[in-house]
Amino acid sequence: MTTASAFRHPAFFYRDDAEYTARTSAFVRAGLAAGEGVAVAAPPDRLRLLHGALGPDAAAVRFTDMTGAGRNPGRIIPLVLRAFCDAQPPGRRVRIVGEPVWPGRTSLEYPACVQHEALINTAFEGRPVTILCPYDAARLTPSVLADARATHPAVIEGGRESLSPGYAPQRAAAAYNTPPAAPRDAACQQFDRQGLRGAREFAVRVAGGLGMAGSRLDDLALTVAELTTNSVLHGGGSGVVRVWAADGGLACEVRDGGRIGDPLAGRTVPPPGRPGGRGLLMVHQLADLVREHTGAGGTVIRCYFSLRPQEADHIRMPPTG
Fold first, then answer.
1. Tell me: the pLDDT tens digits for 66-93?
2. Beta strands in 193-297 (DSSP E)
3. What is the 3-state secondary structure (H, E, C) of 35-49?
4. The whole model's pTM is what?
């Protein structure tokens, strides 16, 4: 039986490669020595450093390129962290180095990173898991480090670990819960139950005109179908879909009057055989980035797509059984 104290989620502020490798390699080796399952999900340069520092011990560690698997932060909990934890034998403790925020994260991606870090605390509460989250304190801005303090119960800095006085994950997530306005020139169509097919065809037509084709167009069609159906079933019966060109790719959003009550919706994999619960999870898998905003005024889910497939970024869901 586990307790809330079984889960640990410290942020680690490092200032150079030496500090990074010393702390993370010691963390990994301690887990291996204790017989724990150990994984590392980080950008490629960090993976190379740690892999080299571990030497032969690296063979016992699961390494994942976070810039691919975690490009959309909404994928990280279900398809990286939980996937590894759930594959372990019952009762086995797990420790993970997870680095979802790095210099170079875009302004579009970053708010989703903060929400992800805040939700880790809910997703793993009571589980025998330690997730160490490194932050490059020499290159990341003070505001990013302040958000890290808010989303992590403890912070390791200068070789010492202490409780974070600024810990307030719900407040941190709420700070990024205001949806930005869609461009005035975005193509727009309202829909209701009778208009679901028309909404999907509208989005595909607009996206095709913006240069999207092939499997990417299929990804968009599936995404719009899932989001608009959720709006009809759970969001008041109707909504609005918008599509526009964005940063060399394409953005698509669905707005409705509903409110998502489960903060982990789309971030957990339902047990095999359980019907439903996979639509938003699939959306996170298909899109390059998903931004979710929900509250008393309704829900906005905005998805960003590159125009061409980037297969390395996609993680396929486990079989539904």
1. 999 999 999 999 999 999 999 999 989 9
2. 238-246, 249-256, 289-295
3. CCEEEEEECHHHHHH
4. 0.90
